[in-house]
Amino acid sequence: MKKLLLILLIITTQFATAQTETEIFLFDINKTDSGNTLTNKKNISNNPGYDSQPQFLANDIIIYAGTRDGQTEIIQYTRGTTRQFNKATSGGEYSPQFMKGKRGISAVRLDPDGRQRLYSYLPRQDKAPVLIKDAVVAYYTWANEDFIVGADIVESNLHLVIHNLKNQTSDDLKIPVGRSFHNIPDTNLISFIDKSTDQWVVKSINPYTKKIKSITELPEGVEDINWLPDGTLLAAQGNTLITKTKKTAWEVYQTFEDEELQDISRFAISPSGTQIAIVAARKDKK
């Protein structure tokens, strides 16, 4: 039990890295003949504590993990206003995501006793059922209403696991992975970062067939990726977003001189591809 709690502590502290420093900035993506530009910067969290892991529910509607009264909760941002989505629990909620085919939100909850599970939440409801019994989910995404693909804590590592909610089965593929999981546009595939070698590789997996294909190698140290609706891959590297298509090498998408955006981590892209929410450490707050 002591070993398990230590493992949980090591993994879940990644959720709360640099607390009191991270903020979420929303930008408009403007397409021009010479490329895309990011404009109309807005700090949508603007809140002491940890604010991260954004996901768009729709254009102009974002959920994220945010600190409220010393506790991490599911926060919803809608066109300039924020509110707490869930009723407060004794544990902290992380990685909130829209549950495909359902009307709720899923989130990883870390309870004070070290228990870590994936729960489902409905607005202002007291009960939050566990979605996957006994699975210690760390990071994940919904492939569809039946499948969740993500990283589970297995022994002392993060393994690629496919959860079949319909059959209540889990398949540990025993592949060391990172924290970034996303639906690849216009496919039924999920992208993940394979860390089984020193050179990390973005790969895709079909949750039905479990077939895996390599997409591209990552520049050193890149942890977070995402996809534009047209299938362009984006990655965060320091104060820069870099991009790659099937036909191009990695190139600069946007470099930020702004002091607030010198250490970018996660980011999310709206369904229309016209907005991007970027998480960054607030250097000027130290």
Summary tags:
286 residues, 4-stranded antiparallel sheet
Secondary structure: elements and pairs:
Layout: H1 2-12, E1 22-32, E2 35-43, E3 51-58, E4 61-68, E5 71-78, E6 81-84, E7 92-98, E8 105-110, E9 116-121, E10 137-142, E11 147-154, E12 157-164, E13 169-176, E14 182-183, E15 190-194, E16 201-205, E17 212-217, E18 225-227, E19 233-237, E20 240-244, E21 251-255, E22 264-269, E23 275-281
Antiparallel strand pairs: 1-2, 1-23, 3-4, 4-5, 5-6, 7-8, 8-9, 10-11, 11-12, 12-13, 14-15, 15-16, 16-17, 18-19, 19-20, 20-21, 22-23
Average pLDDT confidence is 90
Structural class by SSE content = mainly beta
The radius of gyration is 18 Å
Low-confidence stretches: 1-20
Order of strands across the biggest sheet?
Answer: 2-1-23-22
Largest sheet: 4 strands, antiparallel
Q: Give the % helix.
A: under 10%
The coarse overall form would be: globular
What is the overall number of helices? 1
| Spatial gap, N to C terminus | 36 Å
**Element string (H = helix, E = strand):** HEEEEEEEEEEEEEEEEEEEEEEE
Strand content: over 45%
Number of strands: 23
Descriptive notes:
The longest helix is centred in the N-terminal third of the chain and has 11 residues. The strands form 6 sheets. The chain has a 4-stranded antiparallel beta sheet with strand order 2-1-23-22, with no helix packed on it. It is globular and about 50 Å long. The chain is built from 1 helix and 23 strands. Helix content is 4%, strand content 51%. It is mainly beta. It starts with a helix and ends in a 5-residue tail after the last strand.
